[in-house]
Amino acid sequence: MTLAKPRQRPAILPLLTLLLAVLCVAALGVGAIRLSPLEVLQVLTGLADATHTRILYELRLPRICVGALCGAMFAASGAILQGVVRNPLASPDVVGVGAGAGLAVVVTLILFPAAPLWALPAGAFAGAGVGFALVYLLARRAGEVAPVRIALIGIAVAAALTSFQQLILIRAPDDIGRALSFLVGTVYGADWERLLRILPWAALLLPSSWLLWRRFDVLALGDQLARGLGMRLEFARLVALALAVGLAGVAVTGAGVLGFVGLIAPHMARLLAGPSFARLLPASMLLGAMLVVGADALGRGLVPPIEVPAGIVTTLIGAPYFLWLLRRTGGIRR
Question: How far apart are alpha carbons 95 and 282 in whole angstroms?
Fold first, then answer.
């Protein structure tokens, strides 16, 4: 069983990679202390003073790396969910994955503050899985899952999980600041320690998702065609969903619940790179990284020294797009 890789737009992935690199370099100069491109270049070549070097290497560079990785993971998760569920509305935050992971992170941070570093991504993975399982089971009717139904039930489940988050926060006001930063979605304060916490998971999950692109292509064709091609349908779907849940769960531990990144980036990637996951997944990862890095830079540069969390910026962009997409798929009638 083989599927040919699409041949259109062969230069799109190198172009997106170049744009991401340019955006990251530009983002290094944005903040309360603005640095010109020349000053950024001087730091990168070791010719700058100690103050500028510290700002870039200790504050901004790890922040940009964390944002890019988490954006790539959110986008890959959304692309897999949209293909496997065959639902253009599917994304980690819409189908309960983000809210479940966020609840698990809040519980870990507030109720178990002395937990080891591995407990945070592990808890987020478990919470993301529980959130999506609830949505999928409630949306399933007569063995089928309607596209708009899973989106609407996902919104309801996410609201319920969010209410539990608020209940925990009310009962633990002393730790509310750290937990709220995860729920809003931000890479503020990201350091090399946080990057090292998510890097092993990203290095495992992102390549693994791309290596399964043929499986994802077949799953996106529908159940009957997948069975006709000899695929073990339930096992393949379970592996795909586990990857999507894991990617979103780890991303939440690094950047919090960044709204709509997993919805917007795969749609943009599909327009630019085509429907095959061989190109759709890397394009989604690059666009997701660009979206988060750009949103964070915009939040830092709007009204310095005040910083607008990246999650607010992505939500302001993604919410209107989601409403338009919901109308187009028939979920909102005139």
Answer: 22
Q: Which fold has domain 62-328?
A: ABC transporter involved in vitamin B12 uptake, BtuC (1.10.3470)
CA distances from 291 to 28, 72, 139 (A): 15, 9, 30
Burial label for 239, CB within 10 Å (0-12, 13-18, 19+), is: middle
What are the pLDDT digits (tens) for 28-62? Answer: 999 888 888 888 888 888 887 888 889 899 989 99
Alpha carbons 31 and 304: distance in angstroms, whole number: 7
Closest CA to 92 of 250, 275, 269, 301: 250
pTM above 0.90, yes or no: no
Alpha carbons 102 and 106: distance in angstroms, whole number: 6
Q: Are 291 and 71 in contact (CB under 8 A)?
A: yes
Residues ≥6 apart with Cβ < 8 Å to 136: 95, 145, 150
Give me the residue spans of the domains in the chain. Answer: 62-328
Judge contact between 310 and 295, C-beta under 8 A: yes
Using DSSP's 3-state secondary structure scheme, residue 141 falls into strand
Burial, 7: exposed, middle or buried (Cβ in 10 Å; 0-12, 13-18, 19+)?
A: exposed
Neighbouring C-beta atoms of residue 289, cutoff 10 Å: 28
Answer yes or no: are the C-beta atoms of 255 and 186 closer than 8 Å: yes
